[in-house]
Amino acid sequence: MSPVQWLIKCGAGAAIVLIACGFATARFGGGLQMPATTTRDGTLITLSRFLREPVPDIVMVGSSLTFRLKEEYFATPRLRNLALAGGSPVTGLEIVANQPQLPMFILVEANVLSRSSDTALVERYSRSDSEPWFFRPVRAAVAAYEQRLHAPLTHEQVALNLLRLVEQPPSDFDSRVYADRALQQFNAEAPADATRINAKRIGELIQRVEQRGARVLLFELPYSEPIEGSQFARITRQIIHAQFPDQERWLRIDVNRSELRWADGVHLDERSAVILSRSINETFQKFLGPT
Amino acid sequence: MTFTSWQFGVFVAIVFAVYYLPALKAFQVQLLVLASLFFYGYGQPELLALLAAAVFGTYVFLVLALRDRRVWLPVGIAFNLALLAFFKYKLLFIDPAAPSLVDFAPLDFLLKLPLPIGISFFVFHNISLLVDLTRQKAATPTLTSVFLYIIFFPQLVSGPITRAEMFMPQIRPKYFADIPFVEAAKWVLIGFFFKLYVANNLNEMTSYMSFPLYETLQTQDRWLLVFLYSYQIYADFFGYSAIAIGLGLLFGYRLPINFNLPYISTSFSEFWTRWHISLSTWLRTYLYIPLGGNRRGVWRTYLNLMIVMGLGGLWHGAGFGYLMWGLLHGLMLVLERPLLARLASIDSAVLRAARMTLVFVCVTMLWIFFKLPNFEHAVGYLSGMFTPSTNPNPTKLFYSLALLYSLPVLMQHFAPRSLSEGNLRHVEPYLYGLMAALMYLEAGPETSFIYFQF
What we know:
The complex is a heterodimer of chains A (291) and B (454). With 291 residues, chain A is mainly α. Helices cover 54% and strands 6% of the residues of chain A. Chain A has helices spanning 3-28, 39-52, 64-67, 89-97, 119-126, 137-149, 155-167, 176-188, 192-211, 225-228, 231-243, 270-288; strands at residues 58-61, 79-81, 105-109, 215-219. By secondary structure, chain B is an all-alpha fold. At the A-B interface, helix 1 and helix 6 of A face helix 10, helix 20 and helix 22 of B.
């Protein structure tokens, strides 16, 4: 085989695979739910689904704290949780604000406001032509396999298990090592400048989406007691409440704090996340009626 | 400029197009030197002067050592080792974030310079140049040839560490018709495939080995990730070396093979003839043999092995973890040495498989010190591998993805040789085409080559 023949065959091999993947993408769509190797990827799947499916009634945006409130914990199927683990609520709010149609309610987490918006992500999920030309064949195959084994759960499928989980006593997992480390970090951070900028940006975005008919509510997820008193939490709370003093702007979350536990003082454990989600759900059933 | 950036693709295309122009045939070496300086200065222009000073200094010592080897060779080697020690180990003694480190401004400037990329590699090239050419009593090479040998861009940042006696004779006019296109394409394609498809995708998972993320892992996932990191570091470094060899061939230079299926080794000494071959060859030639090798009795041989491997560990970085990694490899070499002859006399496939498994598991466990150079973190990770996890929200890993992204490494090591030498030869170009498509479609998130930090 001459070098030219070898190179032509090699190019042909590559072209065949690319064309096959291009056809498959055109046929099935680029938004296939690829499996996540990281929690961040999991959010990107939800973002893709948010763009592809009909506009939901409620959208939540936030950080890794809100990410723990899984969609299947909520009785309403018309809720999307676009919280970004390691990200900023502003990113999610920008993406939602850039969509042609808006949900009825947008819930914005106000715990972590020191991170700036991810402009690349906002751009990627705000363009209508963001569908890729080719899907990733290996991940698509794994996605098909995983979805066959573990199809995404609906609230109805997990409701009984959630009920059992909530009926159990709170976890006695000793998270002191993680909580101490988190407290140290929360006391070391000085978030004032960045939080002020983001609070102002949230105000601008709220004005923009509410002019188009959506309603925005802010909410704060509870931390463990020591973290509540940390420098980071105090400064953030002070700034965001000064920016939005109207109590009507805030979503009330009624839960018994003694029932809550945190994996690391900051992030709720599964049982507590379910309790929180139920509380939010009950509030919204009043607005939305039976689903 | 990394090998996986589009800028690098454009750079190589331009240099390649100009390199073989008949009008510029007389300036091929100069062109490659200029291109290599541009490549190095693209990321760290402030360090170009340092690179030039290192090469020029070595050249001066080479000229002097060719006249009087006994005096000037040690001085030239000391000059290079001092350069390496200064930049690599200064952070053990200073805080670069401090506003002023010393009152003397030029020294303050030098102390605040970042670690020059590839310094460990080009310093070893310099030493090889000094030793090889003075031993051969060769004629004084031109300054341009010396520059090309040391800073040839495919090998400048992470090797392979090419010995001067192998590279220098290759410096002569190159012709387009002599390019082994298929061989070069195979090296470049397999290199990019291993880096983009295997290493970058596995890196997404092994990032959970970092502190404190590893505390979220279940015990069995800690084990899994160590093995995935073993595949990742191989794919990453093999990928880089393969691209370097392929690019070298495009410009008419044959660089040494750096890897030869290291994970099928049945002993630690065999492993070091298959892993980072150019480094182990360098250490054997310029350190182990001058120390006496195995010619001065059993105990001195053991001591030499420990010294060479300890220094080999420290060559990677100024950390206790790297030293431990090197010393533990040295210890393995010492422990197996008395048994090797007896084991070699037993012809048993089962024993061979058991030895292969043992060596692979030990080598893999020792990579923890590479992934976590902070010794406390490494010990924390290791101890977590032997205690049950209590985290109620462990990180979820997809085992199917882990297998599919590791598969090329496993296939390369364990697929029967007869397949690639027999019927599969006809489909070989298509397989390389498949790899080209997959490295585009399935590329993992961009990460720099692991060995760039050394």
